[in-house]
Specification:
This protein is mainly alpha-helical. The protein has two domains: 155 residues; 54 residues. It contains five helices and no strands. Helix 1 packs parallel to helix 4, helix 2 packs across helix 4 and helix 3 runs antiparallel to helix 4. The model has no long low-confidence stretch (mean pLDDT 76).
């Protein structure tokens, strides 16, 4: 049955693999759920038809069982009244009904098997639909998170770039520190030179003071 083959294909579908291979996972999930819902509706309709056919066959089996029993009773009644030809005719009718009963009984067994198969597929497909609906959203969220993480990773600088930035920063900081140190050293040297200059001036001044004053003419 083509319907059962389509259902079997849906039941075997691996949702995770389908989403991984899909260009648009969300669109693919919606289409998959739609297909499942359509197939589920068709299977449900077939189950209803199968159950109705089974009930009709059950009625035919019951009717022919009653007919066989009825003709057997009539044959027995004819024999009680010593009417063997009538009894034979009744038994012939019962045999005919018995043959029909055998055919309907076989049809009923086949129909019961088909109904059970359709019921099982309906139950499994309904469960699969519920699971797919629940798991689909979760997988989509996980895929979006993974893709966002991948995009973020691509946008982040590589280790080489980070090392270069770190080296540039360290070098700039070292240069700044060295410059400040040099500036500090220069300032100290200037102060010492100024002090030495003042001392020299003071020494020269003291030397001048210690010399005799020139006589005024």
């Amino acid at each position: 049955m083509a319907l059962l083959e389509r259902v079997s294909t849906l039941l075997r579908a691996n949702l995770n693999d389908l989403l991984d291979k899909a260009e648009d996972p969300q669109k693919m999930l919606k289409q998959l759920l739609l297909d499942m819902e359509n197939q589920l509706l068709q299977v449900k309709t077939q189950v209803a038809v199968a159950i109705a056919d089974q009930h009709l066959l059950e009625k035919k089996v019951a009717d022919h069982e009653a007919s066989v029993a009825s003709w057997r009773r009539k044959a027995a009644l004819a024999l009680e009244r010593n009417d063997e030809p009538l009894a034979r005719t009744a038994l012939e009718r019962s045999v005919t009904q018995e043959q029909l009963l055998h055919g309907y009984t076989q049809q009923l067994a086949d129909q019961q098997q088909e109904t059970a198969t359709l019921r099982d597929n309906y139950t499994r497909l309904r469960t699969k639909l519920e699971e797919t609906t629940a798991q689909g959203e979760l997988l989509l969220v996980q895929q979006r998170r993974s893709r966002n993480t991948a995009k973020t990773s691509k946008s982040l600088p590589t280790a080489r770039v980070l090392n270069r930035l770190r080296e540039t920063t360290d070098k700039a900081e070292a240069q700044t520190t060295a410059t400040r140190a040099l500036e500090s050293e220069g300032s100290i040297e200037d102060r010492f030179r100024a002090m030495e200059r003042e001392e020299r001036i003071d020494a020269l001044l003291d030397e001048l003071k210690s010399q005799p004053r020139l006589l005024r003419d």
